[in-house]
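Sanity check record (used in CI):
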Amino acid sequence: MAVIFRKKTDQGRHPLSMEVSLLIFINILFLATVNATILIAISHRTGTKTYLLGWSLLFYSLFFLVYFLWFHAGWILRFPHFIRTVNPLMFLTAPFFYFYIRNTLFDRNGLVFKDSLHFIPAILHVLDLMPFYLLSYERKLELAKMFVEDPGTLNLYADGFVPTYAVDSFRILLMSAYLAYSLWLMYRYQPNWINPLHREALRNPLSIATFLFVLITFGYFSYHTFWMIEALAGFQFPGLLSFFTWVTVMGIAVLSIYLHLNPEKLYGLQRNQPADPRDISTVVKDLEKEGKATPDVKSSDTARRINELLTQKQVFLRQDLKVGDFAAMAGVNSRDLSMLLQNEYHKGFRELINHYRVAYAIDKLKEGYLDSRTLDALSRDSGFNSRVTFFNAFKKEIGLSPSEYWSRFQSGEDLS
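Expected output for AraC-type DNA-binding protein:
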């Protein structure tokens, strides 16, 4: 594990500021560990996917909590055999975060057998550390005293078969790869969720959790980079190392607080609230006079997923949405999807997607979207890739062009 901050000054004195920092870090990480455990327990009980995020937070917070307690607070002197026992857990933080992103986007539950492949790096690291685990108690106690005196030596004298700095570098690169792939999945299937300027991203728990996970990974990656430069080239970066330590720990703290304060979003426990009169379901009812209302969806898992993709995740806002992508998110093949849409909605894929896009555009018109923006912008934000397609789909659904609808709405005409 990389050093987080130096325990002592060059004079060997332990400043009060370091004591305060250590106390703050330990308390933050202890609370984050407890909070993650509660999140896992509640999520398992309610059957939501958030337990995967809870495991990722638990591994992160436990890893750093143990490090500070053992080597900066000196607890490892009592139990020297525990040195390096939690290191393999850090190889699991990124996979479980990826599982959370994947299962949320594709509405999957749990893990499958092939997901066990993601645990191989952690298992290999356990095997790599076997020579160190088999050291005698006396040798480990001697090393523990050295690590407590100067935690920076941990990465120099606690190797397995592979040097610690190489293992840490590989782990951070692997974490970055998992994070990059998770971001790509969000960009491909829910681009609005990854755009920090989009209001939907600011309200979406998955987007906020992703941003905080990026912050944590950035802090850890940056710290390790500067530590490597310092260790191998002899440069000194005490201010930067301290800064990125705070970035990492504060990222964990904010993520833990957010999970604690938003249980109804993250556990899937929605509070009973009156329906928003401008909700898209209300707008869809406005189309009933045209015979275009969405029929009731049957209670099958696939139909439920399709309904969720359309009404909650609003995947129709993606301009590049293709039938194959939608089928993958719904968990069926394209042929079965087309049959199900005809049976349940009496529409083909493109017709159904345009139906929801038009309903979304009407919702925005009633909110006063055109008071400050253009019809071209509305067409793009509604998921259409051209103004012509937008106008044709709108007129097919409503019998009016968007501009005609807007004019009548402004004049106070009842369009319901």
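The chain has a mean pLDDT of 79. If this sentence no longer matches the regenerated tokens, the check is flagged for review.
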